[in-house]
Amino acid sequence: MSVAAVPPHAARPPDDVPPPRRLPLDERLVAPGVHDAVRSVIARGGPDMVFQPQLSLSRLAVAGYEALARFPLAPHRGPEYWFGLARELGLGADLEACALDQALRQRADRPAGTTIAVNLSPSVLGSDAIERVLPDDLEGVEIEVTEHEHVADVARLRHELQQLRARGARVAIDDVGAGHSGLSRVMDLAPDSLKLDRHLVVGVAGNTAKSALIRAVVDFAEHIGAGVCAEGVEQVADLGALADLGVGFAQGWAVGLPDATFRDADPVAVAAGRRSLAGELAPERRAAPPLAQAIVVVEDVLDRLTAVTDLRGLADLVHACSSILGCDHVALSALGVEGGVDTLTQVVGTADADEEVYPYPIGDYPVTRRCLDLRTVTPVLAHRTGDAAEWRVLAELGYGSALLVPVISRDRPVGLLEVYRRATTSWSRRQIRSARLLASMLGPVLDGLTTR
């Protein structure tokens, strides 16, 4: 997917400019004209409002717009400066009410079927200033709880949000992953939507650490029935990565710039999304990665299993699965019978083509025998008493622990998945589940290749 350049006219929005050095409160309060400037903004009806589109990454259509404040008066600072200053002057609720009123006055002009998101600080919810401008019917309105202040009375905030929900509003937690928007706030408020902080989003394409964090947020959101919207999406490549991670909505330069009118999403972003979705729906979603490339998600295993035609190809696939299992080496052995004795023979791939592999009788390895008979995943630690045969092999191979996983097909064992790690530490439940899942996918394929 190509990376879209930022349009030449796309000046960075004022709120993205690094804030100036903050003066102590008392110095700012006596600064010439500061108090008058805030009152002047309120007197003129509030800041100007612009609207940035939010793209549904599944429908590839604009699902809503976020209303953003712009302050044309001096001092020329971003919204955070003005709203923060107003709070310190005791005018925070008045200024936020003006911005809210300006945004809601234009909600009738938005395209049918879209929502409008407005930002409100927790401290102003329920205030007289806000209640004066909030209509009784809040259908199609999303209240974004901003993260610029700590919430001391969570029960009060929860009550105020419930009142807004009763009038039809949806609730979003802004800037998840930054500031006060931690998991505790999310669990307390049970929002309808989580908005990922832009610093977690920018550059997510190719960044495994950010991808893992975003995937965790998406999983958590699914458990609580919330949607996820990514803010600050500046590159089309990041847009595609977010869609792959299960993020439902996105906004930012790559989607569309803020505007005084309700503009559609950037055609470049929509076209890229359509190409990506078409690739997902195609019989072959994408070209198989090189055999030496590690597999990092289960979906890749399923993709590559469909292309396996022989045992060597199956072994190559298994060897590439160490990343998703968190291990140093993984191998697959096929169950067979030689001279009336049950044996296991390692399935050898391209990397081991010159290595001679012989079957070994399962009866010589009691833990392995028990693993296959009982069909249970069995951890083995080096130098553990009672597992003499198995831990001796571990020591010879230079590993500290192993996980033996029975491979089942047609309700019978057909092989053994062997997962090795150099560290002598216990296996996590997640690793055990991943190994069991991999073995269940390998079973029918191994069975088919060994019974032709």
Summarize the structure.
This protein has helices spanning 25-29, 34-43, 79-88, 92-105, 128-133, 154-166, 183-189, 198-201, 208-224, 236-244, 267-281, 298-305, 311-319, 322-325, 366-374, 388-397, 429-450, and strands at residues 48-56, 61-70, 115-120, 141-145, 170-176, 193-196, 227-230, 249-250, 329-338, 341-346, 360-361, 378-381, 401-409, 412-421. By secondary structure, the chain is of the alpha/beta class.
Tag the structure with descriptive keywords.
452 residues, alpha/beta, TIM Barrel, Beta-Lactamase, 8-stranded mixed β-barrel, 6-stranded antiparallel sheet, 38% helix, 19% strand, elongated, disordered N terminus
Can you offer a commentary on this structure?
Helix 3 packs across helix 4 and helix 12 packs parallel to helix 17. This protein is 38% helix and 19% strand. The strands form two sheets. It has an eight-stranded mixed beta barrel, surrounded by five helices. Strands 11-10-9-14-13-12 form a six-stranded antiparallel beta sheet, sandwiched between helices. By secondary structure, it is an alpha/beta fold. It folds into two domains: 268 residues, EAL domain (TIM Barrel), CATH 3.20.20; 153 residues, GAF domain (Beta-Lactamase). The N terminus is likely disordered. It is elongated and about 95 Å long.
